[in-house]
Design a protein that fits this description.
The structure holds three protein chains of three kinds.
Chain A lengths: L12 H15 L11 H8 L3 H13 L3 E4 L3 E4 L4 H24 L5 H13 L1
Antiparallel strand pairs in A: 1-2
Chain B lengths: L1 E10 L2 E9 L4 E6 L5 H8 L7 E6 L2 E2 L5 H5 L1 E4 L11 H11 L5 H10 L13 H12 L6 E5 L7 H17 L4 E5 L3 H5 L4 E6 L2 E7 H7 L1 E5 L1 H6 L5 E7 L2 E6 L2 H7 L4 E4 L2 H10 L2
Parallel strand pairs in B: 3-8, 3-9, 6-7, 7-8
Antiparallel strand pairs in B: 1-2, 1-4, 4-5, 9-10, 11-13, 11-14, 12-13
Chain C lengths: L1 H12 L2 H14 L6 H24 L3 H6 L4 H34 L5 H11 L1 H17 L5 H21 L6 H7 L2 H29 L3
Helix pairs in contact in C: 1-5, 3-5, 3-7, 3-8, 5-7, 5-10, 6-9, 7-10
The chains are: A mainly alpha, B alpha/beta, C mainly alpha.
């Protein structure tokens, strides 16, 4: 799992961590059931505080993506790959809806919009 | 592991009055200007000085009454005090072996070698960087559950600082129960290793916050006088007058990012905090 | 305390050159007729060497760090006495051996039996020195009382010389010692030294417990 953090970004570190772990899970880099590095090990590797990593892991656990076994570590939860694909679809849907709203205001009809989308996708 | 309740210490004009707590498995940082009370606090925790009031407990026992066994679980590095300069690494290995039952000589030797510390030279002939590394290595050589480091990276260049911090991170990663208290002037060192930060000023704790909150939710706003008038002041902790208007320390970065997209917002750093907390209103 | 002893021994080893010089001088000294108080002088040197470890501890501002190691303030104080006596005893052994060797080389007949008792008395010298100087050193610091130490050393050294001069020729120290009933003398000396040491150690421990670093 390669995580790259941007310390100068406006996005809080633990959020960046959450997003990147989620992405790694969705990409299949982190397989279901596989172990994540221990909190302290990841913190040492990324050179951030252990509490930050713990926050990220806790949040991921709340969302059902991680399972923490006391004494053993944290593991990617088994049942949620579908959930991630779902949420990515949902996210894509939101972005497209918003974009389409704004495109509609330019006066193009649906067919013209579809043509445009095809052209853009082909690039 | 360490609990300080209303510790009071008087030194002539100076008066220390603080409370803090370092639970097991926590890495805490102390920052502040020179003379703010960082070293005094550390000395009180180590039982080197006696409080004028309040209590300091380490491992549940009074700091002034730390037993030999307690001290075997503590690793210490102080800025201006260490082993006699006339000793060499070989001497120190023998001394540490005699004092700490959990001292691991092979590991210590290999770590020293990795850091380029010569075995037979006297310590007084070491460079500043080598002396600092030795102190930290010695503190981490005997499985201590609690590390207390006062300015461990002072006087070191950037590369050496990073090496020392990596050493500490590695040590802490080995056992999640290990705790550390580290004081430093170099805030960026602390940002990458501490879970929470205590800021001392004039002998009092003026701020105690989790590091990632500081980095994530604290920010500095730079405003013209007009901008300052119209913004919501609820989350402003400190204000400082500037030639261009004002700088403000806030702890709700999100709020200001979302509601005032036009104003200049800089991400929080411990250095900013120190400046604002000491110089701002 | 073991760690402290190792530290102090290793610090002392640094001075091996001066140590060897003294041994050499002393050995040559043994060839003179007043050889026996060389033993006394040597144990004295031993005690002084031991005291310098307190100076070493102060010199690099080692004290604060030392006190965070697994030692108690009480242990630190006691270790100074133990180390001092170990040094004194070691030098004593060397002194006696040198004396015997020198006598053998010179071919002088030596009645070690008589000598041993008086030599044993010499062992009390370092103890006396330590009892007086350790508390002073701990309380006021080696720097401040350097002059005092010099005076003390001078007094003891001069005193031993003076005493041996005052005893008229022919009456040797061992004869004077044997004149008194040995049991009573031993008991008396033991009691006095024990009391003195007791007081000194207690005082040293008190001084260390009060100290802040």
């Amino acid at each position: 799992m390669k995580i790259i953090l941007n310390h100068s970004s406006m996005v809080p570190i633990y959020e960046q961590l959450i997003n990147q772990i989620k992405a790694a899970i969705a990409r299949g880099e982190l397989k279901a059931g596989s172990a994540l590095p221990s909190v302290r090990n990841l913190a040492a590797e990324l050179k951030i505080s252990a509490l930050t990593v713990k926050k990220a892991y806790d949040r991921l656990e709340e969302e059902g993506l991680l399972v923490t076994v006391h004494g053993k570590g944290s593991f990617v939860s088994e049942r949620n790959l579908g959930f991630i694909a779902e949420s990515r679809r949902h996210e894509a849907e939101m972005i497209l809806s918003e974009a389409l709203e704004r495109v509609k205001s330019t006066g193009l009809n649906n067919d013209e919009i579809r043509q445009l989308i095809d052209i853009i996708l082909e690039d | 592991m360490v609990k300080i309740e209303n510790l009071v210490k008087n030194y002539g004009d100076f008066r220390l009055n603080i409370s803090m707590e370092i639970p097991a498995g926590t890495v805490s940082g102390i920052v502040g200007r020179n003379g703010a009370g960082k070293s005094t606090t550390i000395k009180a925790i180590l039982g080197l000085i006696r409080p004028s009031g309040g209590s300091v407990t380490v491992f549940g026992a009074d700091a002034a009454a730390l037993t030999v066994r307690d001290r075997q679980k503590i690793g210490v590095a102080l800025p201006d005090s260490g082993f006699s300069g006339y000793l060499s690494l070989r001497d120190i290995i023998k001394i540490l072996a005699a004092m700490y039952p959990d001292f691991d000589p092979e590991r210590f030797c290999s770590e020293c070698e990795k850091s380029g510390l010569p075995m037979d030279k006297r310590i007084r002939e070491f460079s500043t960087g080598m002396k600092a590394k030795l102190k930290v290595l010695a503190a981490c050589s005997h499985g201590a559950k609690l590390l207390i480091l006062d300015e461990p990276t002072a006087g070191l260049d950037v590369i050496a600082r990073r090496e020392v911090l990596d050493l500490l991170r590695g040590y802490l990663a080995e056992d999640p129960e290990r705790s550390m208290l580290i004081s430093s002037h170099i805030s960026s060192d602390l940002e990458g290793i501490c879970d929470d930060i205590y800021m001392l000023h004039n002998g009092r704790v003026v701020l105690h916050e989790e590091t990632d909150r500081i980095l994530g939710e604290y920010a500095v706003l730079r405003l013209s006088a007009a901008q300052y008038e119209r913004i919501d002041k609820e989350y402003i902790l400190r204000v400082k007058e500037e030639p261009f208007g004002y700088t403000c320390l806030i702890n709700q970065k999100r709020f200001y990012l979302e509601n005032y997209p036009d104003i200049v917002i800089e991400s929080g750093s411990i250095d900013d905090m120190i400046i604002m907390m000491t110089e701002g209103q | 305390m073991k760690g402290l002893l190792i530290k102090d021994f290793r610090l002392m080893f640094q001075r091996k050159r001066s140590f060897l010089m003294i041994l050499l001088c002393g050995f040559l000294f043994c060839f003179s007729t007043d050889a026996e108080y060389f033993v006394g002088w040597l144990v004295l040197i031993g005690a002084i060497f031991a005291l310098s470890t307190i100076a070493y501890d102060e010199h690099d501002n080692c004290y604060p760090f030392l006190m965070t190691l697994p030692v108690t303030k009480k242990g630190y104080a006691i270790e100074k006495y133990v180390f001092g006596m170990l040094c004194g005893a070691a030098f004593w052994v060397i002194g006696v051996v040198f004396y015997a060797a020198a006598a053998a080389i010179r071919g002088t007949p030596v009645n070690l039996g008589e000598k041993v008792l008086s030599f044993l008395m010499f062992l009390l010298i370092p103890l006396l020195i330590l009892d007086i100087t350790i508390p002073l050193n701990l309380k006021f610091g080696s720097e401040k009382i350097r002059l005092v130490m010099l005076i003390i050393w001078g007094v003891v050294f001069g005193g031993t010389m003076a005493v041996s001069q005052l005893i008229p020729g022919g009456i040797r120290l061992d004869a004077a010692v044997l004149a008194l009933p040995p049991a009573a003398l031993t008991a008396l000396t033991a009691a006095v030294m024990a009391a003195l040491t007791g007081v000194s150690v207690c005082f040293s421990i008190r001084v260390m417990s009060r100290k802040e670093f």
